[in-house]
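Long-time lurker. I teach an intro course on protein structure, and each term I like to show students one example going from raw sequence to a predicted 3D structure in token notation. This year I'd like something fresh instead of my usual example. Would anyone be willing to generate the tokens for the chain below so I can use it in lecture? Attribution to the forum is fine with me.
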Amino acid sequence: MSIIIREDWRGSRGGTYYYVREGTILRRIDKYAFSKKKVYESRRGPTYEYLVPVERIREKEIYEFSFSNSGYPFFRRGSVEAFLNSLGSEYPWIPDHKLMRYVRSEELMNLEFEIEDPALLKLVRDIKKFYPTIVDEIKSYSRAMSFKIFFSGHAEATSTFLDNVNEGMIRCMVLQNDQARMKCLEKPISWIYQLWIMVLISKALMIEEFLKREYETEPTWWIEQGKPYPAFIARSRENIYYTFFFEPQIHEMAHLTGAFIGTRIHVRPDIIIAKGKYSSLKDIAEVDLLVECKTAPQEMWEKEILSQMKDYVEIYRAKTKALVSFYNVDPLLRRSLERIGVIPIDEVRPGGLGLEKFKIFVQKTLRL
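-- Reply from a regular --
Happy to contribute to a lecture. Here you go:
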């Protein structure tokens, strides 16, 4: 006898995924199925159906991870009986949820999702090791300096990470394979790291105040992608103003420039800082500091980093350009970056060797 299980591969907006618990490991349902077929395709993603022999999972717990279309999570667990109860129904792939119980995120902290890709395994281990500290430092600085962080657009994953690293991890790790998990983790990890780098820069500059906009009740860091407007403006103890931009571009259609000439042009650096108060990137003739951040090991981005930085140099004419890396940058790539005027600073992470070096670099670049 077999049960029918269906998954909607739609990310964390309308997606549904199933796992089987083996001790402390959560293993994908497809490891137990003897057949898998695509039964539906939509612009949001495919639906797959599995036939799973009952004897392979009879004594095991099945975990269901589903999300509403707005991204609200519904996590449940139960036995194969929940599916057997639905076999004669019109929708046999929908388990009898009365036979399942809700699972809180805290209950998953002692379990691990099975990972096959070594690169993802390393990333997950480093997130667990370093990102709770990174997030704590961001939130602590936000409280101390009385500003809030606002994420514009569809940034639920990043916002969830900032609220709780473990919950942010779960939203990505429940997805259908290691490739989907890696893609899901990429943006929130990058944005959290970039926020932390801006915190480090602000501390190095001895920022005393973040300015609030006319319509704001409190200072706000606006975190949105591809806008010419600043994320925030800050004033230092020495009464110097700095305007910070987060993943900006000169105008909102700039990312389409390459499409007209058949090549990719990089137009959106991670962080730009200009001395003074500015309402738009278009008002700045020459920025003081451009920072590109890398959260993955070098082998995952080294092929395009030189063309990426050259594009930024051409577009923004920054006085100083830096590449800040969570991991090590090897001497050969370091020299290549330096030849095009980019200063590489690696191992910038909690307890990393590059932490103090980065602080000194920021002070020499922007305070003197």
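Some talking points for your students: Residues 86 and 94 are 7 Å apart (CA to CA). Residues 253-261 have pLDDT under 50 and may be disordered.
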